[in-house]
Write a structure and sequence with these properties.
Layout: H1 4-16, H2 27-48, H3 50-56, H4 58-71, H5 86-93, H6 101-116, E1 140-144, E2 149-153, H7 157-163, E3 179-186, E4 189-194, H8 197-207, H9 212-219, H10 223-235, E5 239-244
Antiparallel strand pairs: 1-5, 2-3, 3-4
Helix pairs in contact: 1-2, 2-4, 3-4, 5-6, 6-7, 8-9
Length: 251
């Protein structure tokens, strides 16, 4: 007699493969479960990637969902996370084609899903800098909000996402070129915001653990640009902690 684990495995296999043998239920019943399972997976994917679906249409999105599910079936009862590898899947599936940019758009959409389950911590203001001596300023490191996600792309994917918040939006001209920006939870809303390249590089360096001095050098900001960037991170409530990088931290 088959063990419970063996029966569970055969049932799971039958949900993906009509040819798989499964003593748990008659074929007709299995077909219902199989269809419900497929539709639930696709619905979860549609909820996470509405702009991808809008740009490619229902039929093609259904094809992508089918092949993605075959490659990355759900390993959890919580379908919120089924889209975690979708951007990577699109990157491989659409590589070198006219729709390669969809992978970068998917990164934005999945970052929104990740941000949704992040807490927004109390932010610190620029006055925190007064705690440090002038000699310490270049060695300061910032801790940002947990929801902050930073993305850059050779395609205008931030413009695509913003345009498609209006139903029936026209395609965005891909000749607009690359864009970069942030995704984060702000107050009670999710924010998708394009950023100028120098500001993006500055934020990316700080988020990567570089010091204030290193971030300024990496981003190529002059003094006025640096002051504006510093004002941005504090005024936007992005900073949750400031500390001095010690030699034990690799500084």
């Amino acid at each position: 007699m088959a063990s419970l684990r063996e029966l569970q495995r055969s049932f799971a296999a039958a949900l993906h493969d009509p040819a798989a043998e499964c003593p748990v239920a008659p074929p007709a019943n299995l077909a219902i479960y199989r269809n419900n399972s497929s539709q639930a997976f696709r619905s979860a994917l549609e909820a996470s990637f509405p702009v991808i679906r809008a740009r490619v249409g229902d039929d093609y999105f259904g094809q992508l969902a089918h092949y993605y599910r075959k490659a990355f079936p759900s390993r959890s009862g919580d379908l919120h996370f089924v889209g975690a590898k979708f951007a990577g899947f699109l990157g491989d599936h659409l590589r070198d084609g006219d729709y390669a940019w969809l992978a970068d758009l998917a990164h934005i959409e999945w970052s929104r899903e990740e941000a949704l389950i992040c807490a927004e911590l109390p932010a610190v203001g620029a006055e925190v800098l007064a705690r440090f001596t002038p000699e310490q300023l270049e060695s300061l490191v910032f801790t940002f909000q947990p929801s902050l996600r930073l993305h850059s792309s050779p395609y205008p994917v931030f413009s695509v996402w913003i345009a498609n918040q209006t139903p029936g939006a026209s395609p965005v001209d891909q000749s607009l070129g690359g864009e970069c920006g942030l995704i984060r939870i702000h107050g009670e809303s999710l924010e998708v915001q394009p950023l100028p390249p120098h500001l993006f590089t500055y934020l990316y360096a700080l988020d990567d653990g570089e010091t204030l001095g290193e971030a300024m050098e990496r981003s190529g900001l002059d003094e006025p640009g640096f002051l504006n960037a510093l004002g941005f991170v504090f005024s936007e409530g992005l900073v949750t902690n400031v500390s001095v990088k010690s030699s034990m931290d690799g500084g």
